[in-house]
Amino acid sequence: MTAAAKIRTGIAGLDKMLHGGFVPGRPYIVSGPPGAGKTILAMQFLREGLEGGERCLFVALEEPPNELKINMRGFRWNLDDLDVLDANSDIRRFEPTPILEISTEEEPIKVRALGDRIRKTPDFESKEVTVHSLQQLLKTLLLKRNYERVVIDSITALKYFCMREFEEAVTTQSFMRYLAESKVTSLLTLELPEEGEVPPEAFLARGEIRLHKLRDETGIKRFISVEKYKGSSHDEFVYAFDITNAGIVLNTAA
Amino acid sequence: MDRVKTGIVGLDTMLNGGLLPARPYVISGPTGSGKTILSAHFLLEGLGQHEPCLLVTLDEPPIEVKSNMATFGWNLDRLKILDATPDIRAHKRQRSVIDVGTALDVRDMEDVTEIRQSSGIRALEVNVHSVQKMIKQEFAHHLERTKERYKRIVIDSMTALKMFSMQGQDSRVLTQSFLRFLAELESTTLIVSERLDRKILETEFFLSRGEIRLHKWVDGSVVRRAISIEKFRGSAFDDKMRPVSITDKGMVVYLDGPAQTRVASAGPIAGESLLETRLIDEVSNVIESVMKGIEDAHRRQVPIRDVEVSLSRAMLAFQRRNYRKAMKIALGCDSDLKERLRQAPPAPPTAIPPRPPLVAR
Ligand SMILES: Nc1ncnc2c1ncn2[C@@H]1O[C@H](COP(=O)(O)OP(=O)(O)O)[C@@H](O)[C@H]1O
Ligand SMILES: Nc1ncnc2c1ncn2[C@@H]1O[C@H](COP(=O)(O)OP(=O)(O)O)[C@@H](O)[C@H]1O
Ligand SMILES: [Mg+2]
Ligand SMILES: [Mg+2]
């Protein structure tokens, strides 16, 4: 694939590492331990799309949308037109009250319309997000709104909170397959433990960008690498990056 | 945005002013690292600002918390304390379990004088559900009585809560739900958690809005303490590990001293076998030797970028304590590099710098 046919990731240094950017229409993973910068990277990816007039969707499974909005304020990015789908499950009920799966009628909210306070679980019913209902909802939304870029933050939350444990492997795989077939360019964040094995989801996407967070005497050192990129050449080197007021910046002439 | 001060000056500086309000944070660290003391600073700071503060204690009964804190001379009288320490009986399942609603035990710290008497016939069962229900009730009572919401809440500890109540249940979903519950209260919450295994991704660590980590290790014959911020959503922060001491005035964080790092070999780390220690040494040796070889190659202008790439991978694997993998890659680098250097033309003789002229004195 020529660089011209690729789409930009929103981070100049990363585009160079990917020899131009992402091959469009495929799912990618950005992995790293908590606090590595995955959500920020994902936002930069969406912001790039918004600037080009693309329709973009952020599916929030870890952060309540109101907090997401506050967290991104410091970067002064214009995210007003970004659609955010609140896929955080409500507080679980212990009493037998009706549990409602997230409905296919659920609508994303534009960042500009997001309030500052957290949505409250209603008294008599709880919204629960299952992977099946979310997939149905995404299907509807993609048809209705023609999204070009979608972020799922995170696939870990989807696996931990929205699937039954015994069917995790199969369900995750089929969710990834669905995304690949949907022809949208999607970025899924994946939480890694600080040490040890990388979870199997990392191997399911067409490409994986990994964020590393290490400590030495000068503090936290952040690195970025491309672990895999099917169908394209890419840079094998590990580069250092910083999180600045402009988001993720690779500090090298990659 | 307004920041919520932790009450520890150095820590607030590290946090760029304090925590972002109305969010749950994790305080992590091994036993005895100072998690409860840090939490007490946070509550004391709130009380000083006339904010309603609630401590939910699962690890130590209120009387113990009270006497521990008395040694610092702090006045925590107006702190509300919810006793959620479990009765042993409940876990032996010998007695029937009362509805937690009737067991709600919230007192002013001031009135804490003795250990809660566990009922002879019924026992308080502690689980996520009951603790959540207790907090909810107390929150509502307090709002009704005083028209004020709790501003600060400490859960000490999540580890205990999980241990008592999440066996066999889906602990991930319950933790998610509990954190959601805390977030909806819109108080600033500290969740104390002992990290048991860094190879396991615990739900509260990625769902919390930040993590403050306490470190404690033995260096020769002294105990060393340090603090670091591992994650803080929505804010920049001081990412160095800073020395900490616990004095009779509580916890002090030093910003001007040298930043601390805990070297892998300092003190025994649980589960680290002798074999692993030797592996660590050997990998470090190989990596070091490759680094020397790389310098050599640069001097002789032998292209070895691919070796550098692999070495950076070996170092990342090393940092993740994946020593076997690190060893494998490093050995590969080593032999590649040696081969490359062997085939390369010999190094140009290093220019001998001209002797400085002798200056007659
Ligand atoms: N303006 C900023 N300057 C520097 N660092 C920031 C800034 N804003 C956020 N960060 C850092 O970015 C990290 C969070 O990144 P995030 O993308 O939420 O991580 P992840 O999604 O991988 O858990 C935080 O630890 C935070 O301290
Ligand atoms: N007055 C004091 N002076 C010095 N150190 C103290 C004092 N009181 C407690 N400590 C230290 O504080 C530690 C206990 O801190 P604590 O917050 O209870 O730990 P954690 O909650 O992480 O288990 C103990 O290791 C003890 O050595
Ligand atoms: Mg994130
Ligand atoms: Mg404690």
Describe this structure in words.
- The complex is a heterodimer of chains A (254) and B (361).
- Chain A has a single domain (3-250), classed as Rossmann fold, CATH 3.40.50.300.
- Helices cover 26% and strands 26% of the residues of chain A.
- Chain A has 6 helices and 12 strands.
- Chain A has helices at 12-17, 38-51, 65-73, 131-145, 155-161, 168-181; strands at 27-32, 56-60, 83-86, 99-101, 109-110, 126-128, 149-153, 185-191, 207-216, 219-229, 239-244, 247-250.
- In chain A, the strands form 2 sheets. Chain A has a 10-stranded mixed sheet with strand order 5-3-2-7-8-1-9-10-11-12.
- In chain B, helix 3 (62-70) links the parallel strand 2 (53-57) and strand 3.
- In chain B, helix 10 packs antiparallel against helix 11 (305-319).
- By secondary structure, chain B is an alpha/beta fold.
- Residues 89-102, 119-123, 264-268 and 356-361 of chain B have low confidence and may be disordered.
- The structure holds adenosine-5'-diphosphate (ADP) (2 copies) and magnesium ion (MG) (2 copies).
- The site of one magnesium ion has 4 residues of chain B, from helix 2.
Q: Briefly, what is this?
A:
The complex is a heterodimer of chains A (about 250) and B (about 350). Chain A has about 250 residues and is α/β, with parallel strands linked by helices. Chain A is about 25% helix and about 25% strand.
Please render the helix and strand layout as text.
The complex is a heterodimer of chains A (254) and B (361).
Chain A (H helix, E strand, L loop, with lengths): L11 H6 L9 E6 L5 H14 L4 E5 L4 H9 L9 E4 L12 E3 L7 E2 L15 E3 L2 H15 L3 E5 L1 H7 L6 H14 L3 E7 L15 E10 L2 E11 L9 E6 L2 E4 L4
Parallel strand pairs in A: 1-8, 1-9, 2-3, 2-7, 4-6, 7-8
Antiparallel strand pairs in A: 3-5, 9-10, 10-11, 11-12
Chain B lengths: L8 H6 L9 E5 L6 H14 L4 E5 L4 H9 L9 E4 L4 H5 L3 E2 L2 H4 L2 E3 L13 E2 L4 H19 L5 E5 L1 H8 L5 H15 L2 E6 L9 H5 L2 E10 L2 E11 L9 E6 L2 E4 L20 H26 L5 H15 L3 H21 L18
Parallel strand pairs in B: 1-8, 1-9, 2-3, 2-7, 4-6, 7-8
Antiparallel strand pairs in B: 3-5, 9-10, 10-11, 11-12
Helix pairs in contact in B: 10-11, 10-12, 11-12
The site of one adenosine-5'-diphosphate has 12 residues of chain B, from helix 2 and strand 11.
